[in-house]
Design goal:
This protein has 171 residues and is an all-alpha fold. The chain is built from nine helices and no strands. The longest helix is centred in the last third of the chain and has 26 residues.
């Protein structure tokens, strides 16, 4: 795998030779991932293949990202040249709901079991809503990028709240 080939890759979909889509065939991606590993891994071909380390590292990074719905959405948005995925696009009603959820999580950590159960239900419902929203977006021929960016940001926000709920501190 020549270094020039790796450097010219624009996105994960192009890297694996598939059309950008939210409905990826993960088996196909895995087959292509293994092919790339076989062609360029130093343990299999030696250290002398130019660009092989870069290709393997890129394959690993892309493959890992494509294994989660949020990773697929992020890489799809990048492939579609969506700008500034971190600019806040979260609706006020969502933020208010998440503030309420965060309050329940804080009460759980303070020892309130009932608040913990309520927080669990709220998290589960919010995650189910998010799953349903993604499935709806996946069913459209060309999903609106603004809706995908909002979904992506909601997913990241809920992930942080889930970690907080579980007591996992982020660095």
């Amino acid at each position: 795998l020549p270094a020039l080939w790796v450097c010219n890759m624009q996105n994960a979909f192009e890297f694996f030779g598939v059309t950008p889509t939210l409905n990826l065939d993960l088996k196909e991606i895995r087959v292509r991932y293994i092919e790339i590993q076989r062609k360029g891994h130093p343990d299999l071909v030696g250290d002398g293949v130019e660009g092989s380390i870069e290709a393997i590292e890129l394959a690993n990074r892309y493959y890992e990202a494509l294994r989660s719905p949020r990773g697929i959405v992020k890489l799809y948005l990048e492939a579609m040249h969506a700008i500034d995925l971190n600019q806040n696009r979260l609706p006020t009603d969502f933020l208010m709901e998440m503030m309420s959820l965060n309050d329940e999580i804080d009460q759980k950590h303070a020892g309130n079991e009932e608040a913990g159960l309520k927080a669990q239900r709220m998290l589960d419902e919010a995650e189910m809503d998010l799953t349903n929203a993604l499935n709806e977006l996946k069913s459209t021929q060309t999903p609106p990028l603004d809706a995908l960016i909002e979904w992506y940001q909601k997913s990241k926000y809920l992930d942080r709240l889930r970690k907080n709920f579980l007591g996992i501190e982020e660095i």
